[in-house]
Amino acid sequence: MDHGGHGMTMDLPPFTLGRGLEFTGEPFFLIGSVVALGLYGWAVVRLRQRGDHWPVSRTVAFVTGVLTVALVMCTALNEYGMVMFSVHMVQHMVISMLSPILLLLGAPMTLTLRALPSAGRGRTGPRELVVALLHSRYMRIITHPAFTIPLFIASLYALYFTPLFDFLMGSKAGHIAMMVHFLAVGLVFFWPIMGVDPGPHRPGYVMRMLELFSGMPFHAFFGIALMMATEPMVSTYAHPPSSLGLDALSDQNAAGGIAWAFSEIPSVIVLVALVFQWYRSEQRQARRTDRAAERDGDKELEAYNAYLASLQARGR
Q1: What CA–CA distances, in Å, run from 149 to 13, 176, 184, 193, 210?
Q2: Which residues contact residue 130 at a Cβ distance below 8 angstroms, ignoring those fewer than 6 apart?
Q3: C-alpha 71, offset from chain centre
Q4: Which of 59, 104, 156, 193 is 20 to 30 Å from the Cα of 212, by its Cα?
Q5: 181 exposure class (CB count in 10 Å sphere: 0-12, 13-18, 19+)
Q6: What angle do CA 106, 108, 111 make, to 5 degrees?
Q7: pLDDT: is 198 or 70 the higher one?
Q8: Would you state the pLDDT for residue 92?
Q9: Among 9-13, 17-21, 47-51, 174-178, the least confident range
């Protein structure tokens, strides 16, 4: 029996982690994952061939990010997520909050700009098109906090608490579109906050932390709302297949607990990354100051000492 004409069997056996992690190879995300890994690998090899360095940590982060997408979309988790709210919520949280952070830590745009050759003066090539896109008005709008934060919040409340979710879950194309949307929203939300790749908005570290924590509480409130509900709130999951041996309300409560708890994970990862970036930035600034002092004989310190001496002379 199909679920909503979507080709997913409803007669799934009771969920276990082993069954959920069985490889199914959903074509759209499988092809997308392979292409992403292939392009990233090509760019890294291109840099290495010309003698340029690319941090292994960035490669590991990007590959891990792609694998997390494949893990929740190319395994039986995707099928169970069609009939179990709790499993779907795991998919949502991973693909919208964990995968984007790992992908962004891989600095794919920086790698792209370094790997693509310049077209030369007065000419336009792929690299120039990427640079133009990064500095376009469109990018300034979709990466501005006034746009990203409401979008991040609306992806929860305006989707799950309206008929839109049931409509999208009614077809394979709608389900894939929804998951792509989750990934895209996560990328544009965390992109300015992570600050690894170049972009039109690059606020200071304190502002980035404020942007991060401005969105996270809404995930917690969303989870609490699901846990406190006394009846199923999403029609798609109101009547789970009998083969699962599952109570819809209990499964919804579990989904709420996942949404509530998972919001802490990306917050910690991003906060650690921001603190590390801040430390590295201060170290670079200190080195620049030291080099400037060596070049000019530390004239700034001499001027400050002269100023203190002048104050002391006036006080006599």
Answers
A1: 39, 23, 13, 11, 11
A2: 109, 112, 113, 116
A3: 16
A4: 59
A5: middle
A6: 105
A7: 70
A8: 95
A9: 9-13
Q: What would the two tokens of residue 163 be?
A: 């008929």
**Count of CB atoms situated within 10 Å of the CB of 303:** 10
Residue with tokens 């002269």: 306
Compute the distance between CA of residue 311 and CA of residue 316 in angstroms, rounded to an integer: 9
Find out whether 223 and 261 touch, Cβ atoms under 8 Å. Answer: yes
Q: Which helix (H) or strand (E) holds 45?
A: helix 27-49
Contact of 151 with 185, CB cutoff 8 Å: yes
Q: Tell me which residue has tokens 């292994």.
A: 56
Q: Which residues contact 151 (CB under 8 A, 6 or more apart)?
A: 185, 188, 189
In this predicted structure, the answer to whether residue 304 has a pLDDT above a threshold of 60 is no
Degrees, nearest 5: CA angle 29-33-34? 120
Report yes or no: 231 and 220 within 8 Å, Cβ to Cβ. Answer: no
For residues 69 and 33, is the Cβ–Cβ distance under 8 A?
yes
Give yes or no for a contact between 271 and 255, defined as CB atoms under 8 angstroms apart.
Answer: no
pTM summary value:
0.82
Q: Which residues pair with 2 in a beta bridge?
A: 9
How far is residue 179 CA from its own chain's centroid?
A: 13
Residues 6 or more apart whose CB falls under 8 angstroms from that of 225 comprise 233, 256
C-alpha–C-alpha distance, residues 289 and 278, integer Å: 16
